[in-house]
Amino acid sequence: MAYNLTTLFKIQYPIIQAGMVWASGWRLASAVSNAGGLGLIGAGSMYPDVLREHIQQCKAATGKPFGVNVPLMYPGIEEIMNIIVEEKVPIVFTSAGNPKTWTPWLKEKKITVVHVVSSSKFASKAQEAGCDAVVAEGFEAGGHNGREETTTMVLVPAVKEAVTIPVIAAGGIATGRQMLAAMVLGAAGVQVGSRFVCTPEASSHMAFKEAVIKAGEGDTVLSMKKLVPVRLLKNAFFEEIHAAELRGADEEEMKKILGRARAKKGMFEGDLDYGELEIGQVSALIKQIKPAAEVLTEIWNDYQSALQGLQLRKNE
Question: Is 129 helix (H, G, I), strand (E, B) or coil?
């Protein structure tokens, strides 16, 4: 399984760094790619000219493959896609939209395309659209999430059964043991988000990183289901939006409370009270800020150790 994915992306380890808004710039993507994984630039928080700059900086910082994550629901997608082609980015991960819209066009440009899904139904649609692989993201994941609320443990085998293309597991994965569990369920590799937020290379604010490593079990909640479901750290903003949900606020009121640039305010500018703090449940297991290369090596070594442990038990 791992061989298929490493060959597809031309990487050493089947570990992908998620393209997260306000956290995944060229420094993080290049650090992960240089360490043998696949780094992704998160285009969701970038204007087109900023994305071009990050792509160029990433190409200067690594000679290894990297990709760009593009949320399809965001405006200006056509300009974003043209920049990706002009800059010869080899891999694109798409999310939050219909893969049929852009996958055929990207494939014509010889770009490897992966789509993020939250159900086996959407995984099948991604395969039909021509995607090379899918990310099966369970609802433990941080940021924008699926309405189905299917856990990674259930989603990965369901998606694996539904498609023949490689399945990348995401949501609640920060250690090698969790990676091994995903591989046993049929994943060809893993996508890791929250663990890479807590690295020096991540462009998110230090106050946000420190809040993540202080988080415990139950400190994140899937919220804003009437808009786009998103997993958040609890803070004053969360309490406000949660109270509105409980009293039955409509979509218009929810949008008014959310306002503009709320995620930037929280994750990039460090407003821990009134910013939107997107992070996964696995934040409860993250206790240190470490370099991205060290995180990747730690996950891979832990995976190998756990695998050997299983093999030893099998032979007992």
Answer: helix
Q: Distance of CA 190 to CAs 169, 224, 234, Å? A: 5, 26, 26
CA distances 62 to 55, 142, 150, 159, 196, Å, are 11, 27, 36, 33, 18
What is the Cα–Cα distance from 289 to 291, expressed in whole angstroms?
7
Q: Global pTM?
A: 0.95
DSSP 8-state class, residue 278: B
d(CA 110, CA 104): 10
Provide the pLDDT for residue 162: 98
Contact 175, 290 (CB under 8 A): no
Q: How far is CA 242 from CA 86, 223, 225, in A?
A: 43, 7, 10
CATH of 7-203, one of 3.20.20.70, 3.10.20.90, 3.40.50.880, 3.40.50.2300: 3.20.20.70
Q: Which strands sit side by side in the sheet containing 143-144, from one edge to the other?
A: 143-144, 230-233, 220-223
CA distances from 30 to 26, 211, 229 (A): 6, 25, 29
Per domain, the residue ranges of the chain are 7-203, 206-282
Q: CA-to-CA distance for 41 and 159, rounded, in angstroms?
A: 25
Distance CA(300)–CA(308), nearest Å, equals 12
- CB burial of residue 234 (10 Å; 0-12, 13-18, 19+): middle
Total residue count of the chain as it appears in this document:
316
Each residue's pLDDT tens digit, 209-247: 999 999 999 999 999 888 888 999 999 999 999 999 899
- Name the residue among 229, 117, 192 with its Cα closest to residue 162: 117
How many whole angstroms separate alpha carbon 110 and alpha carbon 132?
11
- Specify which residues 144 forms β-bridges with: 230
Q: How far apart are CA 287 and CA 274, in angstroms?
A: 24
